[in-house]
Protein backbone atom coordinates (compact mmCIF):
# COMPACT_ATOMS: atom_id res chain seq x y z
CA UNK A 1 0.00 0.00 0.00
CA UNK A 2 1.10 3.55 -0.52
CA UNK A 3 0.38 6.44 1.78
CA UNK A 4 1.25 10.12 1.52
CA UNK A 5 2.66 12.16 4.34
CA UNK A 6 3.55 15.82 3.74
CA UNK A 7 5.88 16.24 0.77
CA UNK A 8 7.04 12.62 0.84
CA UNK A 9 5.43 9.46 -0.38
CA UNK A 10 5.79 6.42 1.88
CA UNK A 11 5.42 2.84 0.84
CA UNK A 12 4.44 0.29 3.46
CA UNK A 13 3.90 -3.38 2.88
CA UNK A 14 2.00 -5.34 5.47
CA UNK A 15 3.37 -8.81 6.17
CA UNK A 16 1.19 -11.87 6.55
CA UNK A 17 1.72 -11.87 10.30
CA UNK A 18 1.16 -8.18 10.79
CA UNK A 19 4.72 -6.95 10.21
CA UNK A 20 5.09 -3.80 8.14
CA UNK A 21 7.94 -2.59 6.00
CA UNK A 22 7.90 1.12 5.43
CA UNK A 23 10.16 3.55 3.70
CA UNK A 24 10.07 6.57 1.47
CA UNK A 25 11.36 8.37 -1.57
CA UNK A 26 10.84 11.87 -2.81
CA UNK A 27 7.38 12.37 -4.28
CA UNK A 28 8.89 13.94 -7.36
CA UNK A 29 10.60 10.62 -8.20
CA UNK A 30 7.62 8.31 -7.75
CA UNK A 31 5.08 7.50 -10.41
CA UNK A 32 1.41 7.48 -9.56
CA UNK A 33 0.62 3.79 -9.56
CA UNK A 34 -2.47 2.07 -8.29
CA UNK A 35 -1.51 -0.84 -6.10
CA UNK A 36 -3.76 -3.59 -4.77
CA UNK A 37 -4.73 -3.79 -1.14
CA UNK A 38 -2.34 -5.43 1.31
CA UNK A 39 -4.55 -8.51 1.57
CA UNK A 40 -4.82 -8.91 -2.20
CA UNK A 41 -1.08 -8.36 -2.59
CA UNK A 42 -0.28 -10.98 0.03
CA UNK A 43 -2.63 -13.46 -1.64
CA UNK A 44 -0.70 -13.01 -4.90
CA UNK A 45 2.50 -14.31 -3.30
CA UNK A 46 3.29 -18.01 -3.60
CA UNK A 47 2.41 -19.99 -0.48
CA UNK A 48 4.70 -22.35 1.37
CA UNK A 49 4.01 -25.46 -0.72
CA UNK A 50 4.17 -23.52 -3.98
CA UNK A 51 7.56 -22.15 -2.98
CA UNK A 52 8.83 -25.61 -2.07
CA UNK A 53 7.54 -27.15 -5.31
CA UNK A 54 8.87 -24.24 -7.36
CA UNK A 55 12.28 -24.58 -5.72
CA UNK A 56 12.44 -28.33 -6.33
CA UNK A 57 11.37 -27.90 -9.96
CA UNK A 58 13.94 -25.17 -10.58
CA UNK A 59 16.72 -27.28 -9.06
CA UNK A 60 15.69 -30.27 -11.18
CA UNK A 61 15.67 -28.10 -14.32
CA UNK A 62 19.13 -26.79 -13.49
CA UNK A 63 20.43 -30.33 -13.08
CA UNK A 64 18.84 -31.46 -16.36
CA UNK A 65 20.18 -28.45 -18.26
CA UNK A 66 23.73 -29.09 -17.04
CA UNK A 67 23.41 -32.83 -17.73
CA UNK A 68 22.10 -32.11 -21.23
CA UNK A 69 24.90 -29.63 -21.92
CA UNK A 70 27.50 -32.09 -20.65
CA UNK A 71 26.07 -34.79 -22.90
CA UNK A 72 25.81 -32.72 -26.07
CA UNK A 73 28.53 -30.06 -25.79
CA UNK A 74 31.05 -31.28 -23.22
CA UNK A 75 34.22 -30.44 -25.16
CA UNK A 76 33.01 -26.98 -26.23
CA UNK A 77 31.87 -26.03 -22.73
CA UNK A 78 35.09 -27.31 -21.17
CA UNK A 79 37.05 -25.15 -23.60
CA UNK A 80 34.88 -22.12 -22.73
CA UNK A 81 35.38 -22.75 -19.01
CA UNK A 82 39.14 -23.02 -19.34
CA UNK A 83 39.33 -19.86 -21.46
CA UNK A 84 37.23 -17.90 -18.99
CA UNK A 85 39.30 -19.00 -16.02
CA UNK A 86 42.59 -18.35 -17.83
CA UNK A 87 41.59 -14.83 -18.88
CA UNK A 88 39.50 -13.64 -15.92
CA UNK A 89 40.11 -15.99 -12.99
CA UNK A 90 38.31 -15.65 -9.66
CA UNK A 91 38.28 -11.87 -10.10
CA UNK A 92 36.05 -12.27 -13.14
CA UNK A 93 33.77 -14.62 -11.18
CA UNK A 94 33.46 -12.05 -8.41
CA UNK A 95 32.75 -9.21 -10.82
CA UNK A 96 30.25 -11.22 -12.86
CA UNK A 97 28.31 -12.33 -9.77
CA UNK A 98 28.41 -8.78 -8.42
CA UNK A 99 26.97 -7.36 -11.64
CA UNK A 100 24.32 -10.09 -11.88
CA UNK A 101 22.89 -9.44 -8.42
CA UNK A 102 23.79 -5.77 -8.18
CA UNK A 103 22.59 -4.32 -11.49
CA UNK A 104 20.64 -7.23 -13.06
CA UNK A 105 23.40 -8.22 -15.51
CA UNK A 106 21.92 -11.06 -17.61
CA UNK A 107 24.67 -13.66 -16.95
CA UNK A 108 23.80 -15.32 -13.59
CA UNK A 109 26.25 -16.65 -10.97
CA UNK A 110 25.44 -20.20 -12.12
CA UNK A 111 27.52 -19.56 -15.24
CA UNK A 112 30.63 -18.95 -13.14
CA UNK A 113 29.91 -22.08 -11.09
CA UNK A 114 29.77 -24.03 -14.35
CA UNK A 115 33.10 -22.62 -15.51
CA UNK A 116 34.59 -23.63 -12.16
CA UNK A 117 33.47 -27.22 -12.68
CA UNK A 118 34.31 -27.51 -16.38
CA UNK A 119 37.76 -25.95 -16.04
CA UNK A 120 38.75 -28.13 -13.08
CA UNK A 121 39.37 -25.01 -11.01
CA UNK A 122 39.87 -25.37 -7.26
CA UNK A 123 36.29 -24.84 -6.03
CA UNK A 124 36.88 -23.10 -2.69
CA UNK A 125 38.40 -19.81 -3.99
CA UNK A 126 35.93 -19.74 -6.89
CA UNK A 127 32.89 -20.31 -4.69
CA UNK A 128 34.14 -17.73 -2.22
CA UNK A 129 34.47 -15.17 -5.02
CA UNK A 130 31.02 -15.99 -6.44
CA UNK A 131 29.35 -15.91 -3.02
CA UNK A 132 30.96 -12.66 -1.90
CA UNK A 133 30.29 -11.04 -5.27
CA UNK A 134 26.62 -12.06 -5.13
CA UNK A 135 26.07 -10.84 -1.57
CA UNK A 136 27.95 -7.57 -2.12
CA UNK A 137 25.97 -7.05 -5.33
CA UNK A 138 22.70 -7.63 -3.50
CA UNK A 139 23.70 -5.11 -0.84
CA UNK A 140 24.61 -2.55 -3.49
CA UNK A 141 21.27 -3.21 -5.20
CA UNK A 142 19.55 -2.47 -1.87
CA UNK A 143 21.54 0.70 -1.23
CA UNK A 144 21.16 2.29 -4.67
CA UNK A 145 17.52 1.32 -5.31
CA UNK A 146 16.19 4.74 -4.35
CA UNK A 147 18.83 6.53 -6.39
CA UNK A 148 18.14 4.40 -9.46
CA UNK A 149 14.48 5.39 -9.27
CA UNK A 150 15.52 8.99 -9.86
CA UNK A 151 16.55 7.94 -13.38
CA UNK A 152 13.34 8.34 -15.34
CA UNK A 153 14.35 5.79 -17.95
CA UNK A 154 14.45 3.10 -15.25
CA UNK A 155 10.99 3.79 -13.80
CA UNK A 156 9.20 1.12 -15.81
CA UNK A 157 11.83 -1.54 -15.09
CA UNK A 158 11.88 -0.81 -11.35
CA UNK A 159 8.09 -0.67 -11.16
CA UNK A 160 7.91 -4.14 -12.73
CA UNK A 161 10.49 -5.47 -10.29
CA UNK A 162 8.67 -3.92 -7.35
CA UNK A 163 5.35 -5.36 -8.50
CA UNK A 164 6.91 -8.83 -8.48
CA UNK A 165 8.46 -8.39 -5.03
CA UNK A 166 5.58 -6.70 -3.20
CA UNK A 167 3.48 -9.88 -2.82
CA UNK A 168 6.46 -11.61 -1.21
CA UNK A 169 6.94 -8.81 1.29
CA UNK A 170 3.21 -8.56 1.92
CA UNK A 171 2.97 -12.26 2.71
CA UNK A 172 6.24 -12.89 4.52
CA UNK A 173 7.36 -9.48 5.79
CA UNK A 174 11.13 -9.06 6.27
CA UNK A 175 11.63 -12.79 5.84
CA UNK A 176 10.93 -12.34 2.13
CA UNK A 177 14.64 -11.53 1.67
CA UNK A 178 15.70 -14.79 3.32
CA UNK A 179 13.09 -16.78 1.40
CA UNK A 180 14.08 -15.16 -1.88
CA UNK A 181 17.72 -15.95 -1.16
CA UNK A 182 17.09 -19.71 -1.15
CA UNK A 183 14.22 -20.03 -3.66
CA UNK A 184 13.99 -19.34 -7.41
CA UNK A 185 12.64 -15.80 -6.83
CA UNK A 186 15.09 -13.29 -8.40
CA UNK A 187 17.47 -12.25 -5.63
CA UNK A 188 18.38 -8.89 -7.14
CA UNK A 189 14.69 -8.00 -7.49
CA UNK A 190 14.05 -8.60 -3.79
CA UNK A 191 17.13 -6.57 -2.87
CA UNK A 192 15.85 -3.66 -4.95
CA UNK A 193 12.42 -3.91 -3.35
CA UNK A 194 13.89 -4.07 0.16
CA UNK A 195 15.77 -0.83 -0.52
CA UNK A 196 12.71 0.89 -1.97
CA UNK A 197 10.60 -0.19 1.01
CA UNK A 198 13.04 1.18 3.57
CA UNK A 199 13.86 -2.16 5.21
CA UNK A 200 16.44 -1.60 7.99
CA UNK A 201 19.85 -2.22 6.48
CA UNK A 202 21.29 -4.26 9.35
CA UNK A 203 18.39 -6.68 9.16
CA UNK A 204 18.67 -6.87 5.38
CA UNK A 205 22.41 -7.58 5.57
CA UNK A 206 21.86 -10.46 8.00
CA UNK A 207 18.99 -12.03 6.05
CA UNK A 208 20.92 -11.74 2.77
CA UNK A 209 23.40 -14.28 4.15
CA UNK A 210 20.79 -16.93 3.36
CA UNK A 211 22.18 -16.53 -0.16
CA UNK A 212 25.13 -18.74 0.84
CA UNK A 213 23.28 -22.10 1.03
CA UNK A 214 21.56 -21.42 -2.29
CA UNK A 215 24.88 -20.87 -4.04
CA UNK A 216 26.34 -24.02 -2.48
CA UNK A 217 23.26 -26.00 -3.50
CA UNK A 218 23.50 -24.73 -7.08
CA UNK A 219 27.18 -25.61 -7.25
CA UNK A 220 26.62 -29.16 -6.00
CA UNK A 221 23.84 -29.70 -8.55
CA UNK A 222 25.97 -28.30 -11.38
CA UNK A 223 28.87 -30.53 -10.36
CA UNK A 224 26.59 -33.56 -10.15
CA UNK A 225 24.95 -32.81 -13.51
CA UNK A 226 28.33 -32.35 -15.20
CA UNK A 227 29.75 -35.57 -13.86
Strand order in the sheet with the most strands: 1-2-3
Instruction: State mean pLDDT (0 to 100 scale).
Output: 78
Quaternary state, please? single chain
Number of E-type strands? 3
Q: Which stretches are poorly predicted, pLDDT < 50 over at least 5 residues? A: 1-44
Query: Secondary-structure element sequence?
Result: EEEHHHHHHHHH
Count of DSSP-assigned helices? 9
Rg estimate, integer Å: 19 Å
End-to-end Cα distance, whole Å, is: 48 Å
Helix content: over 70%
Structural class estimated from helices and strands: mainly alpha
**Beta fraction:** 5-15%
Q: Tell me the overall shape.
A: globular
| Largest sheet entry | 3 strands, antiparallel
Task: Lay out the secondary structure.
Layout: E1 2-5, E2 8-14, E3 20-26, H1 38-44, H2 48-103, H3 109-119, H4 123-148, H5 155-172, H6 175-182, H7 187-196, H8 201-207, H9 211-226
Antiparallel strand pairs: 1-2, 2-3
Question: How is this structure best described in words?
Answer:
The chain is built from 9 helices and 3 strands; from the N terminus they run E-E-E-H-H-H-H-H-H-H-H-H. By secondary structure, the protein is mainly alpha-helical. It has a 3-stranded antiparallel beta sheet. Helix 5 crosses helix 6. The N terminus is likely disordered.
Amino acid sequence: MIAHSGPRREMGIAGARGGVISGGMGAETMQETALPSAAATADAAPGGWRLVIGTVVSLLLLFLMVWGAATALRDEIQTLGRLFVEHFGVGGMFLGSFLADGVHFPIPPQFYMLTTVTSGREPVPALAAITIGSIVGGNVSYLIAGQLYRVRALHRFIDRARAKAEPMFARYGYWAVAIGSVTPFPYSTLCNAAGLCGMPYRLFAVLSLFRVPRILMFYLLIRLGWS
